[in-house]
Amino acid sequence: MSTFRPSSTAFAFITGLLSRTCAAQEVAALTPLCPSQVSAALSQRTFWSDTDLAEWAKSAPEGAYLAFDFTVVAHHGTEMQGLDIQYREGHAVTALSHRFSSLAWVKSGHDPIPLGFEFTVSKRLQTSAYPHHTASQSMIAMLERVRQAGIHFRDLVADAEFTTREVIAYCLEHGISFLGRIKGNSNFIYQGETLNLKSLEKRFPPGDCHYTEKFNWRSKRVAVEMAGSSVEIVIIYRREKGVWKAFFLISTFEQSDITLAELLRAWKARWGIEVIHRLVKQNLSFGQCRYRDIQAHRNWAFLVIQAFHAVLEVRKRDPELTWRAAQHLAAQEHRKFVLTALFPGSP
Q1: What local confidence, expressed as pLDDT, does residue 218 receive?
Q2: Which three-class secondary structure state does DSSP give residue 290?
């Protein structure tokens, strides 16, 4: 019987992700298991729990915002659990992909902190056993999981895909301050008149909006009513090729709680979740899972986040390190853990 701790296989996978050598045979070299046993462990065990989610949440810098998004990776392999592969005529590659609901702490000037990648069944992968959920349903389900894990948050930022009446109603009901990009065809009531965003833009041209030198943006907060609730539209003009172009945010923040400049900083901070997506795909092999089981994809995503946090720990000790250097050092440390069975926190 192996004397390795139960987490040894997970540590081996994390080491492989950090080292960019995460094939089953390479991971097996760091364990007493054969490649087929390593593959079976990834498909059959559950490596993640809400306890880990709560631990990661403690890393949030003061004043961080909770950001939500989707990230998409291509499907590798010739089949997927519950679905025969679908080929496009004339193409040798599949047209299938995997979506993950993504959640993170973000704050400008700080490393973003991933909290979860939840496998979200796309329309093309859905079956009766694995139904597809809308963006709003996926977001609300993940926020419910966060709340049930005892993680307290107040401020939430998200892109236009998630700025729906369903999400806004949920945030208002639970006292969550929400800031999200809003689609151009949205209607609302302004001073008793039903308007769309283009109409509102004409009433508040760039010259009538506050200029923020730091971002080179002009912006204006406008109180409106949507779905029977009082919210704000934030008109933002940014200069593109010498012309002021508008985009729009919707906010449920109390005007007395946050200034316009703070709202703009919150929106700029949202970019941190995009940084996470780029780092995990380019540096931590997210999207390279070639297993057919949904459980394996869930575990892989969890281990990628563990690897990301391992790099964050190194950067916390030495903030001057580049991401690549910090990842290399984290890989060396984890290799020592798995080869000696002396894991962090063990006797």
Answers
A1: 97
A2: coil
Burial class of 46 by CB neighbour count within 10 A (0 to 12, 13 to 18, 19+): exposed
Q: Which residues does residue 55 pair with via DSSP β-bridges, in sequence order?
A: none
| 3-class secondary structure, 278 | helix
pLDDT of residue 82: 65
How far from 152 is each of 57, 157, 172, 258, 303, CA to CA, in Å?
Answer: 9, 15, 16, 19, 24
Cβ within 8 Å of residue 58, ≥6 positions away:
none
Q: Which amino acid does the sequence have at 81?
A: Q
Query: Within the chain, which residues score under 70 in pLDDT?
Result: 1-7, 78, 82-95, 341-347
Q: Identify which of 278, 30, 337 has the alpha carbon closest to the alpha carbon of residue 22.
A: 30
Q: What is the pTM of this model?
A: 0.89
Structure tokens at 95: 């047209």
pLDDT at residue 95, as a whole number: 61
* Exposure b/e, 256-292, CB count within 10 A at least 16 = b: eebebeebbbbbebbebbbebbebbbebbbbbbbebb
Token pair for 233: 């539209």
